[in-house]
Write a structure and sequence with these properties.
42% strand, 1 helix, mainly beta, eight-stranded antiparallel beta barrel
Length: 130
């Protein structure tokens, strides 16, 4: 699937549109290190591994969920604790673009995910050692 830089930029700007004006958006080549790791709904789920529906692994250039994964096509930072990403996920015989906004809390141990076009957010905690 071909996605132009312009299309990626427009979606990412829309994702970070609510960011404070003091935080200028910056296009990145990969997901920053503070966001990388294994994330689950609760700490007790960390022992379950990829069989838990809340499983999320964030790597420099890839997002992997419980039943889907794919490469990151674009990343924009809206400060040190917020990024917007577009990833091309594949799973269960389908492939789709998935634009997300990711925010870390002040400790770097809690992550909030928001999907474009979907109301609400999903929280995750960092699994120990990741």
């Amino acid at each position: 699937m071909l996605v132009t830089n312009t299309a990626c930029a427009l979606v990412l700007v829309a994702l970070l549109g609510a960011a404070p004006a003091a935080d200028a958006a910056e296009r990145l080549t990969q997901i920053p290190a503070p966001f990388r790791g294994l994330w689950m709904a609760q700490l007790r789920h960390c022992q379950a591994g990829p069989t838990d529906e809340s499983w999320l692994r964030i790597e420099a250039g890839r997002l992997s969920f419980y039943e889907s994964s794919g490469p990151v096509l674009a990343v924009v930072a809206g400060g040190t604790d917020e990024i917007a990403v577009i990833t091309e996920l594949s799973g269960e015989g389908s492939t789709w673009l998935h634009p997300l906004r990711l925010r870390l809390d002040g400790t770097g141990q809690r992550l909030t995910l928001e999907t474009v076009g979907v109301d609400g957010s999903i929280g995750r905690v960092r699994c120990p050692g990741t």
